[in-house]
Write a structure and sequence with these properties.
The chain contains one helix and eleven strands; from the N terminus they run H-E-E-E-E-E-E-E-E-E-E-E. By secondary structure, it is mostly beta strands. Strands 1-2-3-4-7-8-10-11 form an eight-stranded antiparallel beta barrel. Strand 3 and strand 4 form a beta hairpin. The chain is elongated.
Length: 177
């Protein structure tokens, strides 16, 4: 009997409707893990790179459904020039569009300062998260997935400007308080 009551309570806690979904003043800590494979083929050359990234973040809802966040990032990228350690830091803004009860489309705009070790270069990047979604199974837990992004990056040490539109999947977990 006690096990049944405990199971019912656990079920109720997990599947309760989200009461405080993205309201002004809500905060979260969390982060993303990602992997991406980029390939470019031109008439002169071809190149491929593989990246693994981790990005811890802190977010604050300035108004209902509008989140401001700051994040730090680290990525390890393998290219034809060798392994590169990439460090990023910057702000972002996301808007939460409710698709259904606990599922949100979360497009975002990001800006970041970037350091890339293989070229010993600093720069900045701008990004649009066009394929970002979040599910809130409980009021304190968010599970996110980022699928599609548009990224512009300028690296001062190499005078390199790049623009990418592509699938860069990452998954994340957020704890809301």
């Amino acid at each position: 009997m006690i096990k049944k009551i405990g199971l019912i309570l656990l079920f109720g806690l997990v599947f309760l409707p989200v009461v405080s979904a993205q309201n002004k003043g809500d905060k979260y800590v969390g982060g993303n893990l990602g992997v991406s494979v980029n390939s470019a083929i031109t008439s002169a050359l071809s190149s491929t790179s593989v990246s693994f990234a981790i990005n811890p973040a802190f977010g604050y809802f300035e108004t209902d459904n509008l989140c401001l966040r700051g994040s730090l990032g680290y990525a390890l990228t393998a290219t034809k020039d060798g392994l590169s350690h990439i460090f990023t830091a910057g702000p972002a803004i996301s808007y939460y569009v409710r698709v259904c009860d606990r599922f949100y489309y979360t497009p975002s705009f990001e800006a970041a300062f970037v350091y890339m070790s293989v070229y010993n270069a600093c720069g900045f990047g701008l990004g649009l998260g066009l394929g970002s979604f979040e599910m809130r199974p409980t009021s304190h837990l968010g599970l996110s997935v980022d699928l599609l992004s548009l990224v512009y990056m300028y690296m001062a040490g190499t005078n390199t400007i790049s623009m990418q539109l592509g699938l860069n999947p990452s998954v994340g977990v957020k704890y809301y308080f």
